[in-house]
Amino acid sequence: MLFNSYEFLFLFLPVTLLCYYLLAKRVSTYSSFTWLISASLFFYGWWNPWYVILIIISVLINFHIGKALAVSSEIKTTRSRRTLLVLGITFNLGLLVYYKYANFFVENFNYVFNKNLDIGAIILPLAISFFTFQQIAYLVDAFRGLTKEYRFQHYCLFVTFFPQLIAGPIVHHKEMLPQFESTAAKHFSIANFTIGITIFCIGLFKKVAIADNLAVNVPLTFTAADQGATINFLYAWTASLSYTLQLYFDFSGYSDMAIGIARLFGIILPLNFHSPYKATNIIEFWRRWHMTLSRFLRDYIYIPLGGNRLGYARRYANLMATMLLGGLWHGAGWTFVIWGGLHGVYLIINHGWQYLTTKLFGANRQSIWLTRLLSRSITFLAIVVAWVFFRAESTSGALNIIAGMTGLNGLGTGGHFNIMQAAFIPPALLIVWLLPNTQEIMRRFEPALDFNACKNRAHQPWLSWRPSTSWAIVLGLVFLTVIGSLTQDSEFLYFQF
Questions:
Q1: Residue 416 pLDDT more than 60?
Q2: Average pLDDT, integer, range 361-372
Q3: Are 136 and 144 in contact (CB under 8 A)?
Q4: Which of 58, 123, 376, 425 is the most exposed place for a label (fewest CB within 10 A)?
Q5: Residue 362, by phi and psi: left (phi above 0), alpha (psi -120 to 50) or beta?
Q6: pLDDT reported for residue 303
Q7: Is the pLDDT of residue 410 over 60?
Q8: In this structure, is residue 1 part of a structural domain?
Q9: Do 360 and 447 reside in the same domain of the chain?
Q10: What is the DSSP letter of 290?
């Protein structure tokens, strides 16, 4: 079920919300949470009911392993605890590898050894990449003694809570489970409702009015490139910039909607997206893009590998390994590995540059606006190039697009250039670079966890939200406009990961 669908907007969400608060008020908190878990599983199973069984099994096994790891009296030795942790991680990664990477490995095996193995089509369960990382983090923290014993109902909701289930954020137990245990999330609040609706409407507008319009000719372009068609300069740049901006508004819109929906239930999700295209270097980009994934990669892969503690050579190797794994996490294909590798190279260059300039000019050097503009432009260009590999179905298709972007295939419009598609790009770039993001607009009202980066930013007062008639009218018009545009369902891009 999609957030931008009539059945979700006018049936599932209102019914789920109404029953949740009615049960909490008139029956019990236990029944309201049970209802919310059931609704979340229904939401997950809307696409494929059989995979509800898979996520239930995953939740049950991880909860009991985590509980055993957290209770020291049940496991006497460190070796036994480590064995149990390895079994838990192996179980989670086993599910992920089978459903997401089995065919990828078989295809590469067949190519290398000239074989013809076939294991049949395997349908990827929605959200398996997200709830796998989420539960691995829980097990590792339980092994480290950083968790306490939680009720199964709260843990189940921590994994299945439908606003963040399908495409993140990758929530952490210390952020969510205390909120589910708190009484604040069990009582209806008009403040939470208005804040949640506002954030949701902004996200819905980003998805339907901006991202979906930018996406119109992107599949046609990349399909043509994969098939070997000549991609000229204007065609290539229109396609690559359209996809770059489509992904931005699609993911940003989903993140806003997830935060807004959770707020309706009195739950505050962590910040997952903070104007990443305003970054002046790749390090900053990864602090702003898919922030909860970056946090997971840092805390559970990069730091355990040694981080920056073992010298510069090992630090750069750890960065590359982390980004390659991050690329493979996004999809079972060499284009995703190349995308991750490119960002690994970008990060190594960025860290090396910072080291060099610090040695030459000192740590307290001041950057002028022209330097920041140049840095932002170079960073954005590098990101656009990497997104080409992320979107393409084949390496040859990506290189075809890159060749067109460099002018090797000619500069003319040919038969592929779409002036209407190109017209969406400049205003979208202005929104991305000049306007405040949703959290900055809502900064007075704690829109998300870890939102302090959005505070005290100098933005136009008229774009700082507060409960008012004028804002209600604007959001009402936005919602009506979007509803009129829902002619067909369009999936979020991160659903496929």
A1: no
A2: 72
A3: no
A4: 123
A5: left
A6: 92
A7: yes
A8: no
A9: yes
A10: S
pLDDT in tens, 34-69: 999 999 999 999 888 889 999 999 999 999 999 888
Q: Considering its fold, how many domains does the chain have in total?
A: 2
Find the length of the chain.
497
Quick one: which of 126, 116, 214 has its CA closest to 166? Answer: 126
Residues 221, 139 within the same domain: no
Q: What is the per-residue pLDDT for 487?
A: 66
Distances (CA, A) of 329 to 34, 204, 280, 334, 412: 31, 26, 25, 11, 38
Kindly tell me if the per-residue pLDDT of 390 is higher than 60.
yes
Q: How far apart are CA 196 and CA 188, in angstroms?
A: 12
Q: Give this prediction's pTM.
A: 0.91
Which of 43, 70, 64 has the alpha carbon at shortest distance from 155? 64
Same domain, 195 and 183: no
Question: Is 80 exceeded by the pLDDT of residue 413?
Answer: no
Q: Give me the helix-helix angle, 395-405 and 334-361, nearest 10°.
A: 50
Domain co-membership, 181 together with 205: no
Reference 244, options 309, 289, 281, 209; nearest CA is 289
Contact between 8 and 200 (Cβ < 8 Å): no
Distances (CA, A) of 217 to 212, 234, 424, 429: 10, 13, 12, 18
Q: Please compute, for residue 15, the number of CA atoms within 13 A of its CA located in the half-sphere on the CB side.
A: 11
Residues 184 and 243 placed together within one structural domain of the fold:
no
Evaluate whether residue 348 is within a structural domain. Answer: yes
pLDDT in tens, 271-302: 999 999 999 999 999 999 999 999 999 999 99
* Domain of residue 166, residue span: 6-188
Whether 330 is a known active-site residue: answer yes
Active-site residue, from 274, 290, 330, 416: 330
Instruction: Provide the 3-class DSSP secondary structure of residue 449.
Output: strand
